[in-house]
Design brief:
Distance between the termini: 79 Å
Organism: Gracilibacillus marinus
Number of strands: 13
Protein name: Phage portal protein
Helix content: 40-55%
InterPro entries: Phage/GTA_portal (IPR006944)
Strand content: 15-25%
Number of helices: 13
Pfam families: Phage_portal
Order of helices and strands: HEEHEEHHEEEEEEHEHEHHHHEHHH
Structural class: alpha+beta
Amino acid sequence: MLLRNLVNKNTKDNHAFRHAQMINGSLPIFSQFGEDIYASDVVQACINVIATEISKLRPRHIRTDQEEVQTIVKSSFNRLFKFSPNELMTTRDFLEKTIWMLFLNLNAFIYPTYDIITDSNGNKRKEYTGFYPLNPSQVEFLQDSTGKLFVKFSFQSGIEYTHPYKDIIHLRKQFSVNDVMGGGVNGQPDNAALLKVLQINDSLLQGLEKSVKSSMAIRGILKINTMMDDEKQQAEREKFEAKLKNNESGILPMDLKGEYYDIKVDPKLVDKDTLDFLDTKVLKNYGVSLPILTGDFTDEQYQAFYERTLESIVISLGQAFSKCIFTDRELDVGNEIVFYQKDMTYLSMSNKLEIIKIAGEQGILSDNEKLKILGYSPIEGGERRTQSLNYINRDIIDEYQLKRGKMQ
């Protein structure tokens, strides 16, 4: 794959490695990962909802100065993430795939490619050329003789790559007992509790399927009150089936030679509350409510979903990208990556108007930004910002009131 060439540009193999020392004494080799729970349609639906929402984010490289004024930087990162962080994916594709990998493995690795640029003063900087989500089958953490940490990726194709860990964007969920990986003690998803619920749910659904099939199987026995050879029995059975097919009145005529015994089929179905209870346990595990899953949610329900499930992922994305991309000096002067949730199409019309009123009165939104919230196209001259005169700078309140008092 083309990733082989991209990775080789920034990889040096002239190191003598040993496995990194974990605090708990375990060997830092992690395989990727079981997929048992992901056969569940409810699990897939939950992850899909989360991944779809995260894919709407807008990553931006910003800089915050000492006055807390934020500006968008003209950088290679913003150029890449405006439309396409690599030649294989759009920004939406990239974010969606990253979140799927994160939930499947509780770890997601992103490899940034870059060129080293030297300016006229001899200063070197990284010019990023792409960001690639990785799907390794095994991950090992190594150290060289100086104690520098490296990560070795092994892929199903048999290819292996080793990189400085600081140059890899690493996202984790359920980061607890393992020193470097999300998930359980072995750096893998610990789905034992959820798997029990899914197994019960699957057993009930299989029972439901069998109940339905049993109600459509043998419904009765035809007793033929004479001694017949096989050919005559076959003829009698065909005669009986013909009567069944041709009967429209619901009354089946028979002669004295045959008796029909009805078999009462009474399948026991699982009640709705039990099935709903099991599905709800799965939904709670992923922080997705039923209204969010079905798309029939209120503004308040979406806000709860954002704060409960999405917000921590948004924060994690920004911190992980910033930590990897920028040097300590660049971070100190206010550089960071922020994933903005700018799309407000989920809001009701009344709430959109309320946002326009409040933000508009403060001069935060331009006319075109207000139109965009309402779903309208921009207009010429729409970059104008207006502000209400009903607000005053608090630093001059006393002076303003004294002047008004003298005028009266």
